[in-house]
Amino acid sequence: MLYDVIDYPTLRVLWWALLGVLLIGFAIMDGFDLGVATLLPFVARTDAERRRAIDSIGTVWEGNQVWLILGAGAIFAAWPPIYATAFSGFYIAMFLVLAALILRPVGFDFRNKLASPRWRSTWDAALFVGGAVPALVFGVAVGNLFVGAPFTIDADQRIFYEGTGLFELLNPFGLLAGVVSLTMLAAHGGTYLILKTDGEIAARARRAVIVSACASAAAFVLAGLWIASGIPGYAITSAVDMAAPSNPLLKTVSVAPGQWATVYARMPLAAAAPTLGIVGLLGAAALTARRAEGLAFIASGLGLAGVIVTAGVSLFPFIIPSSIDPAASLTVWDSSSSHRTLFVMAVCALVFVPIVLAYTGWIFRVLRGKVPADGAHGSY
After folding, report:
1. What pTM was computed for the model?
2. Residue closest to 378 by CA, chosen among 37, 51, 30, 31
């Protein structure tokens, strides 16, 4: 068969890696949109300044959201049980993110319909919520992957989520992960604002980047120490047939404190991921202070990539662990689509992802430069 060109285990790992690439793409591209919206009340104090800050992302945010759509679509097609568990167990959190994201296009479209200061302030607040809430909730969701989600799987492979809702996700470690996400996206948005604006907006954004990036690096280190010492991690203790059809119930799993960190002892090279996260975030702060704006944006993006890769590497091969039935945890080896489906999707990704990257690069080349202070660049 044609799809036997790449064996099933390799395709499973490939799609695990591609999912990480899509998440990194979303964090870097749409992340600065969320970051700019999060910083809006702090870096833009007059109506003209807020309009200029909004104009900096108003022409690109819709295209940047393609990465979120691609990521959700990849989970749906490549990892159906993951999609079912995440979008049912984290339903309230996902609804909160969706509601917040809806505020963004509505805020862009309605802000300038009236000249009333109260009207515009209301929509500016909506844009802030549309940036800060998703940035926080995405981090909370990732943090809860380390804690484990309360679900079980019956003999017919039906997934039953037994959690109580949103407040269950707001546990201490989940909130700490949310702080990491919120501050690193705020820093990333700040580096973008410095590239696109000047004057007081850029000066305030520069201070915000230094504070946010350092806070994110500190929270990231704290989360790592917490994972290494206190949070129980998972490990598969039975033999695993990596080429077998997906069935999460054909394994046994042990749970022990510090288990998530053992990958760094087994594979020292994996430490490159958290190192990149810390160095990237601190580098963004240092380069911003030295007014190397372009390098600061690149360093911030590398920091985001390092943080996301750290989460994926630490959890591997688990994707969503179960806190009440560890053996039902969903992993790379037992929660994917079929061999043929993954192969067809890989061919499509090989064709279309480069097109998306090329088009994105062309768009940003066309829109390079500072946003004019006279509002001629946009209409928000």
Report:
1. 0.92
2. 51
Q: Which of 367, 308, 329, 377 is nearest to 141 (CA)?
A: 308
Q: Is the pLDDT of residue 89 over 90?
A: no
pLDDT, tens digit, 9 for 90 and up, residues 92-120:
888 888 899 888 888 888 888 888 889 98
pLDDT digits (tens, 9 = 90+) for 120-166: 899 999 999 999 999 999 999 999 999 998 889 988 888 888 877 66
One-letter amino acid of 233: G
Q: How far apart are CA 1 and CA 337, in angstroms?
A: 17
Residues contacting 76, CB < 8 A, separation 6+: 83
User: Which of 21, 97, 20, 102 is CA-nearest to residue 61?
Assistant: 102
End-to-end CA distance of the chain: 54
Query: Tokens standing for 348?
Result: 């499509």
User: What tokens does 207 get?
Assistant: 């201070």
How would you classify the pairing of strands 232-236 and 253-257?
Answer: antiparallel
Q: How many whole angstroms separate alpha carbon 69 and alpha carbon 51?
A: 27
Residue 376 has pLDDT above 50, yes or no: no
Output phi, psi for 247, to 5 deg: -160, 100
Q: How far is CA 150 from the centre of its chain?
A: 22
The angle at the Cα of 27, spanning 53 to 377, to the nearest 5 degrees, equals 25
How far is it, in rounded angstroms, from Cα 150 to Cα 158?
Answer: 14
Q: In whole angstroms, what is the distance from residue 44 CA to residue 50 CA?
A: 5
The Cα 87–Cα 99 span in angstroms is 15
What is the torsional sign of CA 286, 198, 28, 50? positive
